[in-house]
Every structure is written in structure tokens, then in C-alpha cells.
Amino acid sequence: MDPIEFIQSGEDGTSFVLNETAIELLQTVKKPLVVVSVVGMYRTGKSYLLNRLMGRSDGFPLGATVQAKTKGIWMWLGDHPLDPENKALLLLDTEGLHDPEKGSKTHDTWIFTLAVLLSSVLIYNSKGTVDANALDGLYLASQLTEHVTVKNGNAEETGEEFGRLFPILVWALRDHHLQLEVDGKNLQPSEYLDHCLKLKRGKGEAIAKYNDLRSSIKEFFIERHLICFPVPCQMKNLKDLDKLQVEDLDPAFVKVGNEFTDFILNQVREKTLGGKSVNGSMFAELSKHYIDAIGKGSVNIESSFDFVLKAENSKAVKAAIDRYQAILDNQEYPLFLDELTEQCKNAEDEANRVFLQSAILTTEDGRSFSKKLSEQIIVIQKSVAEKNSKQSEDNSMQILQKLYEPIEAMMINGEFTRTGGSKEYSIILESLEKDFHGKEHGTKRGPRGDRMLADFLKGKRENELKSLVQTDEALSEKEKEAKILDQEKKQIELQKKAQEEEIMQMKAAQEQITQNFNKNLEKQKEEFSKQHEEEKETMKKQFDTLLKLQQETMEAGFKEEAELLKEQVEDTRRRMEEKENESAKAAEMMEKMFEQMQEQNKENMKMMEKLASRPVNVPSRKKCVIS
């Protein structure tokens, strides 16, 4: 696809509007997203970097004049080149910062804020050297806290609160030609970046501003990298950079460009939300909420996450239930119990798979959706079981009535009222029983067939056959009594056998469904653990980085700053412990919730067993007059 507008600047030049076409496209993406954004001064070649990541030279618009080409935020969406089956790559090209044609500085702040909030990798593009001017281009980082909060309420927040949620920072330094050297020692680019972010000793407004910016960058962007690009070609050809062939470019520039592309694409860090990888639908919801919040003047990350979590978990349950229902609706009823059980298992497995694709289980509210899914599945199971039983009863009755039609005609014609007629009628009923089981009828009997047969024959033996026996002149009174008792005994045995067989099948089905139910609960537990571990890993990385930063600051002699960092280290350590305790409690609560769901499942199985045991209603036919 070609890049399209994602977030458009409003007509007033300050507000933002989402492009519905882009949102619809995102909502079709089920794979996790790796989101790469580029920000920087206008006319510094941001779009060129993204075109390299696309493997093209004509994707995002480039310009040969000093007028900025990109307005708002543009996007390109495709498969991730290194893992096309399992990940999607979303590239975001932002409007250039500090464009003199813009009338609002706040507009720049929100563009920068959106890029930070939406990305898993943020590329900051600048030209020349890592000097005061280049760093000042990132001054918007120090203003983020004026517009963005992490927690709900009025809780005090520090930079590390933001750092655990913000993306990897990759600084792309363009047209760089100086040696990366400090005190006669050559440094690697990222080492040089850390050197440039060191704090200054001293007091005064200028020093405070200098240190505040650098502290913000280090706290907000825990993982940072610097990649230095040489001048790509002769100055006169720069305006045609997008049209130049590889052989027209400086080999050193091509080499760094390839290294840059490989480095960015190998940052397989997916955009996450509550430990869950974000897919296209989740990203679209998050973007909508951020844009709405910007319209109100401030963004609360926790509130946005809660909103998306509820929306996505609701959609996850609905998608799972729709899939479950669709599978069961596509069956030809009635099904025998083993067939119905197998289809219910398949439907539940598929529903659970669909649910876990986007469900976020790391919060108590999120975990409650697992219970909602189970409850709705049980309701559908009950409905399907009743529908299957009813269809089985209706079909079986149709078969029995069709088999009995010629017998009824003989009854009406009085063929069984002669001497010995009761014996002949009894033999024919036994033949009907064999035909019901042994012949193809073009209609499926289903699980209630034997019970329907037993109850049907009971009616015939208690009414028609009993009347025939009582009027049969070939039998003595004693023989008549014995005949009636024998038929009653046969009928009791037939009904008992039919009921026992149905209950046995129901119990076997119950056992299989329970095993499958427990298996899917285990999958949900595994997904919860996976999402929790993702959150723990992020916090551990943040803790290690803060500890290193605190030690370096202390060694550099900045005691006050080091003490502040020490507080942040301890706060992160405390949050890690709280997260561990929260995880243990959540696991315990999840276990209790699953036990409740298992009990509910058992009750549902008992209900289905009762359904199997309940008597069937055999429609009465017009009574035959035996003369």
C-alpha cells in the first residue's frame, strides 16, 4: 500500500481529526504491531528514513523546497519484513516541528506527544551534531508532563512513571561529519549520546534548564541509541535525493542507511498495553481516545488504557461468542451426544482462541471478562442442548408415526380384533422397534430416539395392546393377566435401558466438556502469566537503567540529582514488589474465579443430565375404537 493520512490537522490548525479510512484499515489487522514513528525539525529528511524502512524511495512524500511536505501524521502499514506471518509494521511520519508556517506551538507539542504515546520505537531526526541546538529540538520532551499524566487522580508522578510506558528512542543524526571523540577517546555513537546527556554542575536558570531537558530525556526514554549518517551526496543533488540511485549515493551513507534499517527492523518490540501486544483494532481505539483527550486539553494514559481495555475485552468476548455461535449454528441437528460434545469442544476451543487474541487479563476488570465469556458459553450450551433434544424428539416422532401408519390402518380395519390378534399386534410392535433402529429413515433420530421409542411403545402397550389382550377370546383370564404383566415388564426394561443409555452418554459428554473447559481455563492462565511477565520485564529493565543512571550521577558529583534518582529507584523497586504481590493475589483471585466457573460448569452439566432424565411428551393420536 501507499502511505495515507492517519491523523489530519483540523481546519483551525491546532485540532486533530482521524482519517476513517486509516482507522478501518487498522481494524482489519489482527497481528501485533511494531510501531515506528519519526519526529524532528521540518525539512530534515524524516520521510526519507521511513521510505528506507519501507524499502522504497517514493513512499512518504519528500520535498525539494523549504516548505514542509508532511502535515499531521501519515502512516504506512504492512507485514513486518523479518516476521511477516506474526507481526505487522506500522510507520508514522509526523509533521515537522517548528515550522514557521504554523501558528501554534501547542500543535508541535501534541504532534510530539502523539508520536511518543503511539510508538514502540521513536526516531528523532536532526542534522549536524549532538549539540545544544539539536538537544533543544527535544525540548518538547520536558513539556510532556504539562499535557500528559500517567495515573488517574492527583497522585504525584515522576519521570520513571512515563519511562516505563514510553518507546525506545533512536536518534538519527543526519549530515554528520565530525569525529565522536571526548578527551581524545573515540566513543561509540550511543556512548557519545550518553556523554551529551550528562548534567552540568552549577546553579542558575540556564544550568537548571540545561539539566532539566537532559534529565527528562534520560527518564522518559530509558533505552536510547544514536545513529550517525554522513552527507548522502553532493549538495547540488540533495534536492533529488528521492530520485537518486544507490550508485549515486556516498557508499558510507548507503552503509549507514543499511545498518539503520537493520537496526530498526530488529527492534522487534511490539506496542504493548497492560502486557498485551497491541493489534490494529486496539491501536485504532487507543488513537481515538488520545485524540478525544487532546481535544479536551490533556491526556491521562491510565484512563486511556482502561478505556481501551474495556472496549477490547468487550469486543474479544463478542468475537469469541459470535465464533462459538457460528460453529454451532452451522450444524445439522439433531446430533448424537458424542457428536454434539465434539462440536461444543471445537466451538469452545475456537472461541477461547479468538478471545485470547486480544483479551487483556492483567487487571481485575480484564479478568472478569473471562468469566463473562464462560457464562455466555454456558447459556448457549444450554440453549443448543435443548434445541438438539427438541429436534431429536420431533424427528423421532415423525419416524415412529410413519412406521406406525400401516399398523394403524390395520387397527382401524379391525385386523387385530379377531382371535389371537393381540399376539400379532405384539409381534408387529417388536418389529417396529427393530425397524426404528435398523432402517434408514432419511431423518436423524438424535439422542432422544430411544427414549421416544420407549415412551411411544409404552402408550401403545398400555392402551391398544391392553385393550386387544382383554378382548382376545383366544386367551383365558389368567393368560390375559400374565400377558399384560409381561408387556408391562418389557416396557419397564425398555424405558430403563433407554434412560440409562442416555444418562451414560450424558456423563461421558459431561466429562469431555469439563476436561475441555479446564484445558481452556489453563490457556487463559498461561496468557495471564505471559502478559504479567511482559510487564515485569519492562519494569526490571527500567529499574536496571535507573540504578545505572543514579550511580553515574553520583559519581559525577550531582548529589541532589542522585538522591532524586535514588528515590525513583526505590519507588520502582517498591512497584516491582507491589506488582509481584498483585500478581500473586491476581493469580489467587483468578484461581477462585476459575473454581467458581468450574462449579458453574458442573451445575450446567447436572442441568443437562436432568434434561436427559426428564420424561418426553408423546403426542396422542386419535384413539382407535376396538370393536
Beta-strand segment tally: 14
The poorly predicted ranges are 62-68, 618-627
Number of helices: 18
State the share of residues found in helices, binned by percent. Answer: 55-70%
Mean pLDDT: 79
Outline type:
elongated
Determine the structural class based on helices, strands and strand pairing.
Answer: alpha/beta
Using only CA atoms, what is the Rg? 37 Å
Order the strands across the largest sheet as they lie in space.
Answer: 2-1-4-5-3-6-8-11
Largest sheet: 8 strands, mixed
Strand content: 5-15%
Q: Separation of termini?
A: 86 Å
Features:
alpha/beta; two-stranded parallel ribbon; 627 residues; disordered C terminus; eight-stranded mixed sheet
